[in-house]
Amino acid sequence: MSEENENTITLDKDLIKGVLLGTAKELQEQRKSRRRWLVFKISLFVIFIASAYIVGGGKISYKNGDKNQPHIAYIKIYGPIMSDQLADANQIIPALRQAFNTSLAKGVVLRINSPGGSPVHAGRLYKEIKKLRKEFPDKPMHAVIEDLGASAAYYIAAATDKIYVDQASMVGSIGVISSNFGFTELMKKVGIERRIYLSGSNKALMDPYLPAQPHIQKYWTEMLSEIHLQFIDAVKEGRGDRLNTDYPDIFSGLIWTGAKSIEMGLADNLGDLSDASQEILDGEINTVDYSPPVDIFKRFANESRVQIMALFAASNKPYLF
Predict the structure, then answer these.
(1) The domain that contains 102 carries what CATH number?
(2) Total domain count for the chain?
(3) pTM
């Protein structure tokens, strides 16, 4: 009787061991299967994004039209306006010249979605647009501000014939900013001494590890004010009598909704690229992308950054979900 019990116990242990080993193998296979499926989905997503950008040349909100027919040439001003970015003046200016020199391009439109950037790049683009408009007086040039057209981006838009906005676009921010941090009090608490050697008494004027000096602050503020006045003059020149001077804060650096910007004379009409095309082409919609070509992955990274910057800039803006 005892031998039978021992045999039974041994059999049960083997059975349990086999079941456990089988279960472990099954779990391993399930994990491998899930990993393979995850890799497949990620690969499919990357291929989809890459294909979309190759075919569409960027966002797929507008289908590229027929450049062999009368059309609107549009150029994107997306992201930071500065060197080595999508909105680098060195890249945008040749695209503008190509658009104006193409006979079938009956108008030129800037698609703007930018928080701003370098006043130097904005100033260069502003002057180039004014020059091309004078050289081609019969070819209208409009700007379409999408989510965001602020600071240097609005500087550029002010050079065009007409500015379209959405009622919820963010427009303006006519001001100049420069900022950094001061670490002197923290250094005192930690016991760190700053040692700096220079030639030129003001060479370290923006060093965050040195105490702020009143005469440097005064100098820096005056310099920013000078750039601000250049910005204001450009907006006044570009917008002319359309500016509503009843708003004393118009040049204060505040940002406005698209609807409010029309009321203030900072923009002209509600509309988008299709509306601009219909106006210039007598009701027809035919838009062709003349934006400078860029590396596909750089474009994807930069346009992702645009969306992040727009979210930060819109942190106090109400949304509908």
Answers:
(1) 3.90.226.10
(2) 2
(3) 0.71
